[in-house]
Amino acid sequence: EDQVTQSPEALRLQEGESSSLNCSYTVSGLRGLFWYRQDPGKGPEFLFTLYSAGEEKEKERLKATLTKKESFLHITAPKPEDSATYLCAVQRANFNKFYFGSGTKLNVKP
Amino acid sequence: EPEVTQTPSHQVTQMGQEVILRCVPISNHLYFYWYRQILGQKVEFLVSFYNNEISEKSEIFDDQFSVERPDGSNFTLKIRSTKLEDSAMYFCASSASVGANVLTFGAGSRLTVL
After folding, report:
1. Within an 8 Å CB–CB cutoff, is residue A100 touching chain B?
2. B23, B95, B103: best mutation site toward chain A, by most A Cβ within 10 Å?
3. Which residue among A5, A28, A62, B62 is the one 20 to 30 A from A81 at the CA level?
4. Do A103 and A86 meet the contact criterion of CB atoms below 8 Å apart?
5. What does the pLDDT look like over B57-103, one tens digit per residue?
6. Minimal CA separation from B36 to chain A, in Å
7. Which among A100, A42, A56, A49 is positioned nearest to B109, based on CA atoms?
8. Are B4 and A43 an interchain contact pair (Cβ–Cβ within 8 Å)?
């Protein structure tokens, strides 16, 4: 069965304190792995797509990496405005739907 | 920047009532989706829609649910007889093509069933 597990569930950081979020997945034939950001009461907002092991993508303070079993979202020198829930989702080959993880709720204190 | 628009933002209904949630996807997108998120839980896939028909649906999407694209711009989700457990945030999403293509989500419609 396809599964996506994110850890930790919640993460508190001081401003400037770098860390990583983990997304472990089990899927038959990965088409793509997606990272989204979700603010309270809002829809998920796209961050990155990764397609194959070894791929990396960067955007401002965020960097996403992918292996055959997991993906990491590295946050370098976070700011309070990075506080949100970060969602990982996988899409299986030949299917449209995305499987989402439960998310990591990040809180960055000034 | 193009966006997916959903209405209403919040709807309160009595158990057993019919509810229609509306979405205006991004204009040049061809694939449309409904997801839901029960408070504190994962975002769950309900249904995908392409070329005026359902292309994929989950076990959650039973006979009480239906989707329609009544005109060239709107995409609707109907729940015929709501249950307490239907209370959730419902997200509409669209993408330009199938494949590992980015889903753009709307802000969501919060449904509360009493």
Report:
1. yes
2. B103
3. A5
4. yes
5. 999 999 999 999 988 789 999 999 999 999 999 999 999 876 657 89
6. 10
7. A42
8. yes
pLDDT band at B2 (very low <50, low <70, confident <90, very high): confident
> What is the distance in angstroms between the Cα of A17 and the nearest Cα belonging to chain B?
27
CA-based angle B41:B93:A88, to the nearest 5?
45
The mean pLDDT of A57-75, rounded to a whole number, is 96
- Of A101, A103, A81, the residue nearest A90 (C-alpha): A101
Q: State how far the Cα of A67 lies from the Cα of B48, in Å rounded to an integer.
A: 28
- Give me the DSSP letters along A91-109: EETT--PEEE---EEEEEE
- Note the pLDDT of residue A52: 92
